TrEMBL record:
Pfam families membership: Aminotran_1_2
Residues forming coiled coils: none
Cofactor entry: pyridoxal 5'-phosphate
Top-rank lineage group of the source organism: Archaea
EC class (word): transferase
The protein's name in its UniProt record: Aminotransferase
UniProt keyword annotation of Transferase present: yes
Transmembrane segments: none
Keywords of the record: Aminotransferase, Pyridoxal phosphate, Transferase
């Protein structure tokens, strides 16, 4: 009979778990499930990165790493960020086991009990849980009426953000909508953040996976560098989800505080993985471009497949997800799509946006065709 802490009781189990356990159960019964629920590239990690990790292990980089991260990697990250006009020194970066840990540390560092955290819905599933674990209270701005774009919803954001707001989370390109926010939208965020003295998390983990647009990094805007925590990682662009490598970049005073959370929790990211990260940043532009090109072709295919069936999906210019309308009960739609059509998707309500399901197109073309056919044949697209 445990007496659980309030903080864990505040957090709901992930809505995606029900779907993935049902999918696993079906697969174990021999059912061919088209899994469009996963948020990871279906490509192998580029070979040079694997080789770099092997070499690093053989060279003996198997002990504890410096908590903040291997200096050469932090320098490579700083150089990489400079390509996006972001001006961070190696000392303003903490290398973390995954961007998720970088986000977790940021929430722990900034959010006190009762502090207001503002999310833009649909928002990636873990922001809410991380805010709540830190004791924060949530306010949400819905972007679904504006095809998931922020610019038309700036007035709503202005009504939500106030002097009481501690933190605002901006994720562009977005998981789950794929939306890349316009410069005007980011300038609107800047104006509000400066007026109300709000810190902003800029989760830019999909910044390399864009189609014909160059996303602007929030911290490049005047007045933002000193109030932004830039989050990024290797999972998506380099297909390194299982390696657990990401980082946060922020002014040094924040790094000092967040560094305490890191050193007293995970210690560091895995030592030899950090060495492989240097290779990823320095030698993998072609591999990243090839994967991104494949995602782009799949996105266009998926849009055409839906259009052929009369379904309009708001297509984003980044990441590898689309939100498909489901009618009010998205959880039910997803459960039925899985149990009847054997297509796994994630309910929009998991991202704060009921009425949609998130489909990932990090899957082969044949799987995408098959998935849409099954949904259409099962009546899931005729709302
Ligand atoms: N941020 C967003 C928007 C994501 O979609 C994800 C992964 O799904 C993460 C952060 C965390 O990525 P990782 O911890 O694998 O670096």
């Amino acid at each position: 009979n445990f007496d659980f802490a309030d903080r864990v009781e505040r957090v709901e189990p992930s809505a995606t778990l029900a779907i993935s356990s049902l999918a696993t159960e079906l697969e174990s019964e021999g059912v061919d499930v088209v899994d469009l629920s996963v948020g990871e590239p279906d490509f192998p990690t580029p070979e040079v990165i694997v080789e770099a990790a092997t070499e690093a292990m053989e060279a003996g980089h198997t002990g504890y790493a410096p908590s903040q991260g291997v200096r050469d990697l932090r320098e490579a990250i700083a150089a990489d960020l400079a390509r996006r006009d972001l001006d961070y020194a190696a000392d303003e970066i903490i290398v973390t086991p995954g961007a998720k840990q970088a986000l977790f540390e940021t929430f722990q560092t900034l959010v006190d009990d009762g502090n207001e955290v503002v999310l833009l819905d649909p928002a990636w599933v873990s922001y809410e849980a991380m805010a709540k674990l830190a004791g924060g209270s949530l306010s949400r701005v819905d972007l679904s009426a504006s095809a998931f774009q922020l610019e038309p919803a700036l007035d709503d954001l202005a009504e939500t953000v106030s002097d009481d707001t501690e933190l605002l989370v901006v994720n562009s390109p977005s998981n789950p909508s794929g939306a890349v926010f316009s410069d005007a939208a980011l300038e609107g965020v800047r104006d509000l953040a400066v007026d109300h003295d709000v810190t902003v998390i800029a989760d830019e983990i999909y910044d390399r996976i864009t189609y014909g647009v160059e996303p602007t990094s929030l911290a490049t805007l005047d007045g933002m560098r000193e109030r932004t925590v830039t989050i990024n990682g290797f999972s998506k662009a380099f297909s390194m989800t299982g390696w657990r490598l990401g980082y946060l970049a922020a002014p040094e005073e924040l790094i000092g505080q967040a560094g305490k959370v890191q050193s007293h929790s995970v210690s560091s990211a895995t030592h030899f993985v950090q060495h492989a990260g240097i290779t990823a940043l320095r030698e993998c532009d072609d591999a990243v471009n090839q994967m991104t090109q494949a995602f782009r072709e799949r996105r266009d295919l998926l849009t055409d497949l839906f259009a052929d069936r009369g379904v309009e999906v708001p297509v984003g210019d980044g990441a590898f997800y689309v939100m498909v309308p489901t009618g009010d009960d998205d959880a039910r739609w997803c459960e039925d799509a899985l149990s009847e059509a054997h297509v796994a998707t994630v309910p929009g309500s998991a991202f704060g946006t009921p009425g949609y399901a998130r489909l990932s197109y990090a899957a082969g073309e044949e799987r995408l065709r098959e998935g849409v056919n099954r949904l259409a044949d099962g009546g899931f697209l005729s709302l």
